[in-house]
Amino acid sequence: MSTTVPSTAVTSGPIEGSTKEYRLVRHAYSDQSHVSDELRIPFRRVHLTNGEHLDLYDTSGPYTESEPVLDLDAGLARTRDHWRRPDPVDGAATQLAWARAGIVTPEMAFIAEREGVDPDLVRSEVAIGRAVIPANHRHPESEPMIIGKAFAVKINANIGNSAVRSSISDEVEKMVWATRWGADTIMDLSTGKDIHLTREWILRNSPVPVGTVPIYQALEKVNGDPTALTWEIYRDTVIEQAEQGVDYMTVHAGVLLRYVPLAAHRVTGIVSRGGSIMAAWCLAHHQESFLYTHFHELCEIFARYDITFSLGDGLRPGSIADANDEAQFAELRTLGELTKIAKSHGVQVMIEGPGHIPMHKIVENVALEEQLCEEAPFYTLGPLATDIAPAYDHITSAIGAAMIAQAGTAMLCYVTPKEHLGLPDRDDVKTGVITYKIAAHAADLAKGHPRAQERDDALSKARFEFRWTDQFNLALDPDTAREFHDETLPAEPAKTAHFCSMCGPKFCSMRISADVRAYAEEHGLVTQEDIDRKLAAEMDSKSQEFIDHGKKVYLPVV
Amino acid sequence: MSTTVPSTAVTSGPIEGSTKEYRLVRHAYSDQSHVSDELRIPFRRVHLTNGEHLDLYDTSGPYTESEPVLDLDAGLARTRDHWRRPDPVDGAATQLAWARAGIVTPEMAFIAEREGVDPDLVRSEVAIGRAVIPANHRHPESEPMIIGKAFAVKINANIGNSAVRSSISDEVEKMVWATRWGADTIMDLSTGKDIHLTREWILRNSPVPVGTVPIYQALEKVNGDPTALTWEIYRDTVIEQAEQGVDYMTVHAGVLLRYVPLAAHRVTGIVSRGGSIMAAWCLAHHQESFLYTHFHELCEIFARYDITFSLGDGLRPGSIADANDEAQFAELRTLGELTKIAKSHGVQVMIEGPGHIPMHKIVENVALEEQLCEEAPFYTLGPLATDIAPAYDHITSAIGAAMIAQAGTAMLCYVTPKEHLGLPDRDDVKTGVITYKIAAHAADLAKGHPRAQERDDALSKARFEFRWTDQFNLALDPDTAREFHDETLPAEPAKTAHFCSMCGPKFCSMRISADVRAYAEEHGLVTQEDIDRKLAAEMDSKSQEFIDHGKKVYLPVV
Q: Which of A321, A399, A472 sits opposite B398 (nearest CB)?
């Protein structure tokens, strides 16, 4: 790997108020219990001022350790190489094949501890294809994670340079930066020169699975003329990327010749790059897509490395007007066929989804995907709930993303404020990631994920008790929360003030509320029944007492 | 009015790419058809580069005219004073009383033209209390608007200074600024000194209805001691504000003594300022809230000015943990009782709603509100779908807001990025407004509002045709969209380039897609049937032709 990125080029050190911790787990295959692997499961510990702490799922890799030893040139430790890998099952060396064979792999055990679930839930969800573990054998630096609706909703951050701007160094930092804030996977969508080298730098240094769209690089190899593409060029590109360690690949194998005209009279035609490339190829050759006709061969390659298919929605709608149309759903039916083929090869599959969808048409997308694709994990881009807010499409899409995740989508591809307008910079990447963490977490709450509400409760409790520092540190973005607070009340004592700048000391409802609680506790109003009973009996005589107490309510503490 | 705000202190002039237009409508009461009022209905015309235009609902008042004549000291023209006002019906000079009597008022005619609906729909929705027209007779400067689920979803922007910071001049500019970007109403939540004067400046210069929470000013009058409040002090404050022209008032009359202990053991107690003030009063006096016991008297005052009740949810949940609890719903039942009382006085009513609600508990809020409060318009603050993202609560709440509006909420109170952290500045106000316009519009689309999708389609068509300038000008925030684009491709010719910075010239799916369409049209593939038929018959022989055509695809235009 040519050294072009100094280790100082990436952000490192703990997130404010947190430390990086590892939980050690010994894992042994059930049939080989005399040998075991040591797994170090990472998490982020938020230290609270009241002595408590909260442990959070963490995607940031060693970069957030207190004193990380970084060598970007060497890459991260090849941890998974030291774990024992089961033998292939029917030619497939994949998590799917092993799960079907009843084997709980080290990756599954790692994930179970990370998600706080039973290892056999991980195995069984993978076995029936309702969850995937993208983990190419040649990306041993990655920390195992799972994508499936029985688990926490995940988010992906797209990075990658284009012909117009951006450098390798920028992209490596974007990867580190995106995972720092919670990206569960990264897609490298580079289309410019140095496409191979950029990917190598990202893969060797990425603690999360990396996805790509191989057709982009294949197109570079034919100087950008899609009609000059061939199966052989594409296949060789896939193998090149497989050898590098790409964990999942978007393949637009559902864009069939006969579907292309369905998109011709749309308001926004074909908006997927891969979809439009394949459409152009199909029309030019008047042949069926080589991705479709060679799909079995592709599956054999994927099975060797355990690459996960991300079956691309090349005909996804690019506008509200085109949502849920025949072109989109025709392709989805084909993705359903391909899902069955891939699984018959022991290859893991997820399905990509739209795009631009008005709210009332969102649930239909999930229902149809589950029906047609055997509940393979759905991986959607947003969707944007309206077209009218360029520069705010992280928000238009967070609305759709939260709703589609509530309905069952397993992973959300982020959208940044630059969507439709330009390439995201570092700030945009952070905004996109935080926004999508919100959508994913809102869905986890709505789905009743067992650990989700812990964080809301901890933060709300801190808010109610005026533990400002804890409120910041428990936030998705402690730095910005602190900064916004300090704009109004910058003095350090204000961090412990029993009021805030919105209402000032006299109007603070939280303060009054605390007094109400104190009053209730003072008077033994502990349960609802107590409250009802005692209120009737006692309150009359106590009102003067509350007045005395109440006179103190508005004295500022600072 | 003491002159402290120069006219140069507010933002004026058209929004980029648009002009302010007025449509003239003559309106006569059906029973007095020989006399009519001339109504000038404002809208914003977006001029497109292809010679077309799109007219949009506009809330910005004369400030966005090309050469506005502004005199903040004199205030806006008192337009509604020149319209004939029907006689009171049963003592009530209200839109509700007139609607019930079958009268289409000038305000209703104005709204019908503005919303593009039949005037009798406006009248009938007001008559049954499913919509309100907040329009105090003493705020004749306002342009009539309607809040109800049969109409476009509206948004409110809160402004107002506090003891800690902000000036009158800042607040007037925030009002102008918020309405420029689409705020349908403004609430002045000032709590510091100069509360009367600030409100006067805002009212005299506001083209949209203004709401307040009178208890805030009443509390100032008793030096911040809630236990010192009395009905008389509150009543006099309401009359003072009524005389100034406040269009709707939040009244926390549903916070009853017996509900207060229900909130004592919540994670975040009582988070509504008004709610906590009344709770403190009730506990201190061990008496029922004077807002509740004097509610009839309050209705009589409201009926004289046509002030609309915004029945406050003083016990709204302030955290995910407290959502949909007994305290919240007990108060809602009382608001239902009060709704009936207000309507019996001919007074218009809307109902305020939460707050912090996880997605799966949102719909229940709307269903219960409609059931208990006779479908009075619901007016919700967000709700935030999670607690964990201070500094991004415009986004956490936009998710909830879009969903609750889809379910039937008529007006959304915005949340800015500073929520929970500090007072919003001018930028925060804009971010909050734009974010809530997104949520409202997403709901309009989902509800099938007849005009909503026009704008999405126009913008998406512009996007597909690479009319960059039109894409910017049709956006909710043209300035930021343009700025983001220009960061990557600043040259003016790039505005007509047939590609953008995300993919560069070679990878542009929109370009390929345009070629697919050109190909389809060239070959007569106009309807779906044509496509199916001709594809089978002709495409084989045409592939070479497409290749020739395709070779041109990737030549950059600039």
A: A399
